[in-house]
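Much of what follows relies on a compact textual record of a protein's fold. A record is reproduced here so that you can trace the correspondence yourselves:
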Amino acid sequence: MYKMLIRLNEDKIRGENKIDLKTIYEKLDGIFKKRGFSLSLENNLRVYSGTNSVADYPNLGIILNGLKKQDWFVSNLSVWILCTNEDSDNPEDFDEEDLVEYFGFKAA
């Protein structure tokens, strides 16, 4: 199963007043929903979870490659973590990769 954890710097977004926070979340939620990922909120994080289907991996790749090119997303990131549990029989046991660090972005 695949999950992506995202937290945006809401104070920065509000302070800059370039784009509405609600608009950003609607755009982000729509991107994941279009690819079959569900949204939950956990510990001030947006958690987008796959359906455990074979389509999750390529859909996640499409999402990831699209988001990393979007300034409205990258410039406001605080947390961006990819979670996978391909190598575990326990559905709650995830490996995590910090995508902010992986791509060399500066956390907002």
